Amino acid sequence: MYCGIDEVGRGSLAGPVVVCCVASPVNWQILDCSLPVVINDSKKLSIKKRELSDIWIRSNTKSVGIGLSTVEEIDEFGIVAATAMASERAFIECGVFDPDLILLDAFEIDSIKKLSKAPQKAIVKGDSKEGVIAAASIVAKVYRDKLMDDLSGQHPGYLWHKNKGYGTKDHLDAIKKLGTTNQHRKLFVRKIV
Questions:
Q1: Given this model, what pLDDT does residue 191 score?
Q2: Where are the domains of the chain?
Q3: Is there a contact between 31 and 162 (Cβ–Cβ < 8 Å)?
Q4: DSSP string for 98-116
Q5: What CATH number matches the domain at 2-146, 3.30.43.10, 3.30.830.10, 2.40.40.20, 3.30.420.10?
């Protein structure tokens, strides 16, 4: 059994950081043509392909867990600690504590070491190298994108349905014109405002 863990939204100016943990008996190959969907780094897939892959991944794994860290936690603890907290929450929600290997994108998570004796392997750009990390990347991105679409409806001037809270020109212009919301990370936008 493999667990793949990846985050989405780490560099965003607004909204939570979202982490997914996928537990699967198979570590799919990136871009495996025998699969009915595309498994690859979520940033390399179209919205339609991500959504189809998300449905397939959720139906073809042992378990999926999602963990979030709020804007308040990011501001209080910093993005590194907040991402680790969200990773731990995703791992706990996934509920598979005895995998053979935990594969992570870029960083090992110390708090997960307290929950599982399974070895961790951190891989730089792991979401484009290991199938279970890519699967976690896809599920996390689909989840966070929908969340940011919903938040965009509550804060329409910031165009989060398009930029997902990242620092695009339109988003930066909106911050300068409208100020910040309760969904903006103060640590990230204080230099802009």
A1: 74
A2: 2-146
A3: no
A4: --SEEEEES---HHHHTT-
A5: 3.30.420.10
Q: What confidence category does residue 193 fall into, taking pLDDT thresholds of 50, 70 and 90? A: low
Consecutive H or E run containing 51:
helix 47-59
d(CA 37, CA 31): 9
> Has this prediction a pTM greater than 0.70?
yes
Q: So what's the pLDDT on residue 9?
A: 97
**Residue 119's pLDDT is what?**
97
60: CB partners within 8 A, 6+ apart: 24
Residue 170: both structure tokens together:
């339109």
| Whole-number Cα distances in Å, 130 to 40, 41, 54, 169, 193 | 8, 9, 16, 33, 39
Number of neighbours of residue 180 by Cβ within 10 angstroms: 19
For the chain, what percent of residues have pLDDT higher than 70? 99
CA 100 to chain centre: 22
